[in-house]
Amino acid sequence: MSKSVPMRPRLAPKATLSFAIVASQYNAQFTQPLVDNAYQELNILEPGATVSLISAPGSFELPLMVQAVAELDRYQAIIALGLIIQGETAHAMLIAQSLTTALLEISLAHRIPVIHGVLLVENEEQARARCIDQEFNRGVEAARAAVASARTLRDIK
User: Fold this and answer.
1) How many domains does the chain contain in total?
2) Which of 18, 99, 138, 139 shows the smallest number of beta carbons within 10 Å?
3) pTM of the model
4) For the segment 12-56, what is each residue's pLDDT rounded down to a tens digit?
């Protein structure tokens, strides 16, 4: 596990961006803390920002939901959050690979940052360290990446 978390982007004096968090409900004991931490960090970085939450049944369904959100042309960044725990078969890896490719394709096709916050872990201990613990929380990391990417893309345009 990487021991670094991206630096916090500068704080905005007022909200200028809006975000969507698309989260898997599967493994909710881990995904909900990811959502909570991402939401809190977005509100610190962009006080009063519009943050919409969209649920998906599982990680495999995330790309369809992300694509539907991207088509609305309402948000400056989308954060996809989920957790896949590796089992004894290749199923988890197949979902993770398909999901990664689909999120990238959606981001490029719609020219919107889609932050890949779907974690593939080996066990619940790894999940806890990345989803619940505060030191290397991937929800915080995803929010920081969303804000930084959205601001950069806005500046380029």
Assistant:
1) 1
2) 18
3) 0.90
4) 566 679 999 999 999 999 999 999 999 999 999 999 899 999 999
